[in-house]
Amino acid sequence: MRPTPALPWLASYADGVPATITPPDEPLTDSLYRAAERFPDRVAVDFEGKATTYRELLDEVERAAGALLALGVQHGDRVAIALPNCHTHVVAFWAVLRLGAIVVEHNPTYSAVELEHQLADSGAVAAICWEPTAARVAEVQQNTQLRHLIAVDLTRDLPRTKRIALTLPVPAARKQRAALRGPTPAGALEWHRLVADAKPVSAAHPAASADDVATIQYTGGTTGTPKGAVLTHRTLGSNAVQGAAWTQFKDGTETIYGVLPFFHAFGLTLCLTFAARIGATLVAFGKFDPAGVLAAQRRRPATFLPGVAPMFDRLSALAEKTGADLSTIRISLAGAMPISRATAERWEKLTGGLLIEGYGLTETGPVALGNPCTADRRPGALGLPFPSTEIRVVDQDDPTVDVEPGERGELLIRGPQVFSGYWNRPSENADQLLPDGWLRTGDVVVVDEHGFATLVDRIKEMIVTGGFKVYPSQVESHLRSMPGVADVAVVGIPGGDMGEKVVAAVVLDPSASPNIDLAAVREWCGQRLARYAVPRELVIVADLPRSQIGKVLRRVVREQVLTRA
Fold it and tell me: Which superkingdom, per the lineage (predicted)?
């Protein structure tokens, strides 16, 4: 199918990319079973050099599903996963889905307060957590519906030689062991023992349907209040099928580097579910470390690397310094933040492949637009709508009115990868999801005559740092409780390879004599906020600019901060 006046972007598609896809009428787990049948001896997961074939992975998934079933996990139950990328994360994800239960992903570095809110909101009955995270969950478990807390010893996921090395009585081994381990909370179950002792789930146990909920992914959307985006098996499966159509990868041949966190929608789909859909090898990294990535490249070379701009810059710098060979990486996908032409050109020179930019939201599973995987890609542009995806650009104040071609307006998206709404948030669903399936993104774009969209601005004043969203109101709320702070505005300013950095403009309380400096602010924020949300700069101001109705004008604050710089 080639272009129509209503769908101008189709003319810019790469050869062989279809205009539409057929949304899969099956549970996500079917893709894992197919991969195990077609490529049983192919490595499915490589974590720190420990390789697991598809046959072995499926066997372990079925045992893990049996273990969860024995604990009483049923169809539709929510099961929290709060793990860094690791072998267990992959197994736990597929095991929960095999039972028809719902995966609720959490950032394992979150504070107890942040975890409490999300766990209570989802009503999760079980939580599979990294040991240090399990300790924080245990602090608030009584305020949730959790019946089972399951702790994961990450060292058990390592190859035997690395586990033995951690026991050596040398400072380096002790330091690494301390970074990976934590005390198991009283009453918590131990994941690896639980799975080892379990019987596999019966083949007769019913699977989920395509329209069952697969995951709840917490996001701020276009506001600062965390809420769970509900994604069905069909929704996530559709996005994997769209990705396969867009990249035209060959089944059973690719190696995907999982440097993006699986708890984030970007990493969950582009790495974890996409790998199973195409029978790829997934190389999982517990954290992003350029030296570790290049070491893995020597051991098991990548063909596809999804990431964010700072990752490509840091990998490029180290590869240039060490002479590392990146020539196997044919396609890399950048998302979450704009990528510069200089970054793209540098990466493409090193790899000989393409670095393309994509765009999406947690609410779109997550990818909705992408640059073509050809020389026609445009660094800095969001790209073209994926197959079976439609876009509109509308008036920012009235989403029923389309703007003229080439004019800026709010981006609306419709397609099979669009979520079904927020968990227990009917009023917000009505605001975000318009009639006929259109999703309001809150992003202002311009779309040219060829269908390429370019981001102009964000309607809401969220900050994107290192690919993560920071909502100023949340940081401000916590800082206002800090002794000596009378008022505060939080803004984002250009932050080099981080995209933006968080800056707090603080008005001091004249009645107090506090010792407030950046270190104190960071310590205070670190008690309740994720690390990426902690301010990296502090500006003391006499007052904050306000509108006629008293609203702080963050735009003006940002301009003032930039002027000071």
Answer: Bacteria
